C-alpha cells in the first residue's frame, strides 16, 4: 500500500533541519514503523542543545533527578571529555516513559535527526513497550511521576535535615545500588499522589515493625532451636530492601531515601540486562526503516550516504588487538544477530535449517518480534547467536585461569567451537555472574544485632578487597551496628573477609 | 501521536547544582590543588580559571565488584591467528584479560587523576577564601571624597539640556486645564442657552446676537491661554552624592641590586600577583606603580621591573621617598586606596635603615591603607627588618613577613590577609 504511491520528490536532505521538516520525516518514519508492526508508546521528541545533552547524559538520562554530587562529578567528566574531544556526545538519549521521551540534539543534521527518530522513537520505544523484562519490572507511565516525587522528597529532606545528612545516606545507598534489585517480585503501579500518601503511611507502619523486631522486653525463655534460627530465614539478595525494612536505627525519612535509590535501581535493571538486544533492535529498525524510505524514494541518495556512514560507525566492531577495542560493541552484536535472524527466515541455508529448524523459513517479522519480546541478552544470545555471526565476528573464547600461567584458547569460530562460544558469550551477559553474589545471610537478632553478609564466589573469582572495605563502611552506616562479610568457598568452608568496624 | 518540543531555551545549567555539590564535597582537595597551582602559574595569566587535578582514588564511589584472579571465560572478536587449544602468554596489565565491563573500568581508571577546570571566579574564590583587606571597614567611611552625580527628582529651574519633556508637558496640560476650566463651563452654559433660544418658536434675535458675542469672546479667552509657559518647565535635578572610592593603587617596591637574583625576583613577583588579584576583587580598577631601586629609585614599567638586572648597593629610603613623591603628585590619598608592597632580600645600608623607619612612620604609613614588607632571604635578618619591627606595635596597617622559598609565598600571603577574628 505504501509502495503504491510513487514518490518523485524526495524530502529535503538538509543538512539544516526545521520543525516542519522533522514533522514530515517523522510522518514517513511512523508510517513505515506501523507497516512493520512496531507498537510503541506515544512519542515526545525534544530538541535540546549540546549543553543540555551533557546535563541529560550526566544524570544517567533521567529527565529529573535528585541532587547529588556524583552527578556533578559525572557532568564534569562528560564536559571535560567533550571539550577535549575525547568523545562526541551521544546522538540520542531515550527515556523509558509513557510518552516515550527522546532527545534530538540541535547541532545534528536532518539525516541524524531522522536516524535518531527511527532509532529511539520507534526502535527503543517499541522495545520498552514490548520486552517482557520492561513490562514486568518497569512502569513507563509512572516513572516521571516517581522521579518527581523522589526529587521533591530529597530536597525536602535536605531542607529539614541538612544537605550533609542526606548526602551521607545517599552515598551509602549508591554504594549498594546494584544490590537494591528485586529479581522476582513485580512492583505495583501507583501514581504520584498515591505514592505520597503511601509514603506517609509506610513511614509510620515501618517504624512500628522495626520496633517490634528489636523488642527488648524479655518473653519466655528462648529455646536452643530458636536461638539458632537465622534471621532472615532465607538469604536475601536485595540488600537495600532488607535495610529499608529492618535496619534498627534508621529514621523514617532515611528509610524512604533507601527506598528511592532502590526503586531507581530497579527501574534501570532491565536496561542493564538487555543492552545487546535493545541497541541491536533499535539499530536494526533505524536501518530497516530508512532503507525502506529510500526504496520508496522518500529520502535522497545524499541522505543515504550520510546515514550509512554514521550507521557503519555505530556498528563497527574493532578486533581484539585493535587499540580501539573495548569489549564487544552491543550495537554491532545486536544488529548482526537481528539481521541474521531475518536472513535465516528469508533465505535459510542448510546450516541454518540444522541450527534453527523452527525458524528457518518462517515469517521473519513475526520471529523478530517474538525474539524481542521474550528474551534478555543472556537467553537471546544462547538462543539466536548463529554460526554465521560467529564467523563474521571471528569470535574466539579465552579461558583465563589465575592458576594457569598462560591463557588458553577454548574455542574458535569453527564447527567444534560454535556451541561453546555461544554458551560462553551468553554467560558473559549473565548479570548474576558479572555481579558478585552477595546476600544478607544473618542478623544476630538476640545478640549484638550484627549483620552478616555472605559472598559465594563463582569460578573462584575473589572480591576486590579495597572497595569492598569501603562499601562495608557504607553498609555499617546504614545498619548502625557491626556488619561483616563472609565468603563461602566451593568446598563449603566459610571464612570472614572483612568487618566494620574492624575488630579491636 | 508525536509532540515536538523545543527545549533549547530551557535552562542549560541543570547540572549546576550537582557541580556545586561536587566542588563543595571536595573543597579540601580542590583548595590544595589551587594553592599548589598558584606557585606554577604564569604571572600575566590572571584572567583564566584553573585546571584542577585531584587524585581519582579520593573521589571514586565504591562498589562491590570482582577482583583479579579466579577462572574467567571471555569471548573476543577478530580472531586472526588462534586455533583451539592454543596457549597464549598472559598479557601484562589489565587490558587483555578484562573480565566484563565493570571490572575493567574499575581497575583501569583508578590510576588516572581526575582533572577538570574551574572558572576564574571559582578559582579566585577558593584562592582568597577567608581573606579580607585589613582595616577596610574602619577607614572607608571617613574618607568619602569621591562624588557621583545622581538623579534627584525635578526642579523648576535649570539649563535647557536638562528639560524633562514629559514632566513639562504634563505641567502645561494641568495649567491649561486649571486656567480655562471656569471659562469652559461658562461657555457650555451659554451654548446651551443659545441652542434653547434657536429652538424656540420665535427666536429672540437680540438675545441671540448677545449670546454669540459672549461666546466668541469666551472662545478667544480660552484660546489665549498659552500652550506652554516658562512656569510649566521642569528640569531634571542632579545631586552630587559622596561615594566610597573604588580606585586603588598598588605600589610595588623592589630591590634590584646585585644581591637580588632572578629566583628571588620571581618570588617577589608571585607575591605581587597575588596582591594584585586580591585587590582587583575589592576595587573596580587597580593601578600599579612599579618602583625599583638600588642606590637610586626609579619608576619603571612591568617588564623592566621584573627582568632588568642592575648592580650596586642598596638604599631603600630612595624608593620610599619616590613613593611618597608619586603619591603627592598623582594619588590623592583622599581619592585613592593606596597599598604598598615591598620586597627585598634584606640588604640595606646600615645607616639608611633608621631613615627608612623614619619615612615610613611620618610620611607613608599615615597615607596608605596597608603596607606589607616581605623579606626573601635564607639568611638572618638585618637592620632593615629590625627597624621595621619597631613600627609594628604602632601601625595596624603595617606587616612584615619572611619568605624563604617559593612554597612560603601563598601561606605568607594568607597570613597577611587572613580574616581578623572579630
UniProtKB/TrEMBL annotation, chain B:
Q: Where is the composition biased (Basic and acidic residues)?
A: 58-75
| Location of region: Disordered | 49-111
Among InterPro entries, the record links this protein to: UPF0229 (IPR006698)
* Pfam families in alphabetical order: DUF444
Q: Which family does it belong to?
A: Belongs to the UPF0229 family.
For this entry, the protein name equals UPF0229 protein Q3O59_03335
Taxonomic lineage of the native organism: Bacteria, Pseudomonadati, Pseudomonadota, Gammaproteobacteria, Alkalimonas
Amino acid at each position: 500500500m505504501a509502495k503504491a504511491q510513487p514518490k518523485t520528490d524526495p524530502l529535503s536532505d538538509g543538512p539544516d533541519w526545521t520543525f516542519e521538516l522533522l514533522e514530515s520525516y517523522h510522518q514517513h518514519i511512523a508510517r513505515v514503523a506501523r507497516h512493520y508492526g512496531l507498537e510503541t508508546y506515544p512519542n515526545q521528541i525534544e530538541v535540546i542543545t549540546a549543553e543540555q545533552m551533557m546535563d541529560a547524559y550526566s544524570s544517567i538520562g533521567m529527565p529529573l533527578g535528585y541532587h547529588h554530587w556524583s552527578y556533578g562529578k559525572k557532568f564534569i567528566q562528560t564536559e571535560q571529555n567533550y571539550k577535549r574531544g575525547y568523545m562526541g556526545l551521544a546522538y540520542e538519549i531515550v527515556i523509558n516513559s509513557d510518552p516515550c521521551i527522546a532527545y534530538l540534539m540541535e547541532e545534528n543534521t536532518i539525516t541524524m535527526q531522522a536516524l535518531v527518530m527511527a532509532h529511539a522513537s520507534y526502535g527503543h520505544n517499541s522495545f520498552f513497550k514490548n520486552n517482557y523484562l520492561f513490562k514486568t519490572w518497569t512502569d513507563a507511565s509512572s516513572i516521571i511521576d516517581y522521579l518527581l516525587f523522589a526529587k521533591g522528597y530529597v530536597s525536602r529532606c535536605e531542607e529539614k535535615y541538612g544537605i550533609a545528612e542526606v548526602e551521607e545516606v545517599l552515598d551509602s545507598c549508591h554504594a549498594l545500588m546494584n544490590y537494591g534489585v528485586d529479581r522476582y517480585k513485580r512492583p505495583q503501579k501507583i501514581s504520584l499522589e498515591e505514592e505520597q500518601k503511601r509514603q506517609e503511611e509506610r513511614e509510620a507502619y515501618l517504624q512500628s515493625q522495626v520496633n517490634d523486631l528489636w523488642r527488648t522486653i524479655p518473653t519466655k525463655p528462648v529455646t536452643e532451636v530458636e536461638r539458632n534460627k537465622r534471621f532472615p530465614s532465607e538469604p536475601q539478595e536485595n540488600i537495600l530492601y532488607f535495610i529499608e525494612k529492618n535496619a534498627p536505627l534508621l529514621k523514617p525519612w532515611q528509610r524512604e531515601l533507601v527506598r528511592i535509590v532502590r526503586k531507581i535501581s530497579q527501574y534501570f535493571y532491565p536496561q542493564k540486562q538487555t543492552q545487546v538486544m535493545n541497541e541491536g533492535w533499535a539499530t536494526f529498525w533505524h536501518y530497516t526503516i530508512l532503507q525502506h524510505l529510500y526504496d520508496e524514494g522518500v529520502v535522497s541518495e545524499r541522505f543515504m550516504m550520510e546515514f550509512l556512514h554514521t550507521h557503519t560507525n555505530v556498528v563497527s566492531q574493532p578486533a581484539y588487538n585493535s587499540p580501539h577495542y573495548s569489549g564487544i560493541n552491543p550495537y554491532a552484536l545486536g544488529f548482526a544477530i537481528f539481521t541474521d535472524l531475518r536472513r535465516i527466515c528469508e533465505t535459510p541455508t542448510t546450516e541454518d535449517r540444522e541450527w534453527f529448524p523452527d525458524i528457518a523459513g518462517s515469517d521473519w517479522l513475526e520471529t523478530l518480534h517474538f525474539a524481542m519480546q521474550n528474551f534478555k541478552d543472556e537467553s537471546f544470545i544462547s538462543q539466536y547467536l548463529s554460526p554465521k555471526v560467529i564467523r563474521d565476528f571471528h569470535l574466539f573464547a579465552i579461558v583465563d585461569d589465575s592458576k594457569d600461567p598462560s591463557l588458553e584458547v577454548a574455542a574458535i569460530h569453527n564447527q567444534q567451537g560454535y556451541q561453546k562460544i555461544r554458551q560462553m558469550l551468553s554467560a558473559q551477559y549473565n548479570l548474576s555472574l558479572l555481579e558478585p553474589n552477595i546476600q544478607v545471610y544473618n542478623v544476630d537478632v538476640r545478640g549484638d544485632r550484627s549483620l552478616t553478609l555472605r559472598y559465594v564466589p563463582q569460578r573462584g573469582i575473589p572480591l576486590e578487597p579495597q572497595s569492598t572495605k569501603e562499601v562495608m563502611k557504607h553498609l555499617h552506616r546504614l545498619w548502625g551496628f557491626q556488619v561483616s562479610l563472609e565468603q563461602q568457598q566451593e568446598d563449603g568452608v566459610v571464612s570472614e573477609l572483612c568487618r566494620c568496624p574492624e575488630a579491636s | 501521536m508525536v509532540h515536538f518540543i523545543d527545549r533549547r531555551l530551557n535552562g542549560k545549567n541543570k547540572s549546576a547544582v550537582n557541580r556545586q555539590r561536587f566542588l563543595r564535597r571536595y573543597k579540601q582537595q580542590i583548595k590544595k590543588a589551587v594553592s599548589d597551582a598558584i606557585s606554577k602559574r604564569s604571572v600575566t595569566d590572571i584572567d583564566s580559571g584553573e585546571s584542577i587535578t585531584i587524585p581519582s582514588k579520593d573521589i571514586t564511589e565504591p562498589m562491590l565488584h570482582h577482583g583479579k584472579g579466579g577462572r574467567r571465560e571471555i569471548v573476543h572478536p577478530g580472531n586472526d591467528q588462534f586455533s583451539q587449544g592454543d596457549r597464549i602468554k598472559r598479557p601484562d596489565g589489565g587490558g587483555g584479560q578484562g573480565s566484563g565491563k565493570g571490572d575493567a573500568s574499575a581497575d583501569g581508571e583508578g590510576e588516572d587523576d581526575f582533572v577538570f577546570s574551574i572558572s576564574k571566579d571559582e578559582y579566585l574564590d577558593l584562592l582568597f577564601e577567608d581573606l579580607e583587606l585589613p582595616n577596610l571597614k574602619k577607614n572607608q567611611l571617613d574618607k568619602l571624597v569621591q562624588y557621583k552625580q545622581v538623579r534627584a527628582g525635578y526642579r523648576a529651574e535649570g539649563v535647557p539640556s536638562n528639560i524633562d519633556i514629559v514632566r513639562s508637558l504634563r505641567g502645561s496640560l494641568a495649567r491649561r486645564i486649571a486656567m480655562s476650566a471656569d471659562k469652559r463651563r461658562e461657555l457650555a452654559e451659554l451654548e446651551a442657552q443659545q441652542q434653547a433660544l434657536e429652538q424656540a418658536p420665535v427666536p429672540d434675535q437680540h438675545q441671540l446676537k448677545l449670546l454669540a458675542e459672549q461666546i466668541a469672546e469666551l472662545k478667544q479667552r480660552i484660546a489665549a491661554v498659552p500652550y506652554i509657559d516658562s512656569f510649566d518647565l521642569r528640569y531634571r535635578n542632579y545631586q552630587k552624592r559622596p561615594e566610597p572610592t573604588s580606585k586603588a593603587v598598588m605600589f610595588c617596591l623592589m630591590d634590584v641590586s646585585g644581591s637580588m637574583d632572578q629566583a628571588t625576583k620571581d618570588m617577589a613577583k608571585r607575591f605581587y600577583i597575588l596582591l594584585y588579584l586580591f585587590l582587583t576583587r575589592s576595587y573596580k580598577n587597580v593601578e600599579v606603580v612599579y618602583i625599583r631601586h638600588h642606590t637610586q629609585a626609579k619608576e619603571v614599567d612591568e617588564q623592566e621591573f621584573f627582568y632588568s638586572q642592575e648592580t650596586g648597593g642598596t638604599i631603600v629610603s630612595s624608593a620610599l621617598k619616590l613613593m611618597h613623591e608619586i603619591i603627592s603628585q598623582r594619588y590623592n590619598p583622599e581619592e585613592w586606596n593606596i597599598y604598598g608592597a615591598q620586597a627585598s632580600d634584606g640588604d640595606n645600608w646600615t645607616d639608611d635603615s633608621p631613615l627608612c623607619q623614619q619615612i615610613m612612620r611620618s610620611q607613608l604609613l599615615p597615607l596608605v591603607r596597608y603596607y606589607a614588607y616581605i623579606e626573601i632571604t635564607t639568611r638572618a635578618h638585618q637592620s632593615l627588618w629590625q627597624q621595621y619591627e619597631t613600627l609594628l606595635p604602632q601601625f595596624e596597617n603595617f606587616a612584615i613577613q619572611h619568605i624563604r622559598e617559593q612554597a612560603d609565598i601563598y601561606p605568607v600571603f594568607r597570613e597577611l590577609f587572613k580574616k581578623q577574628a572579630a
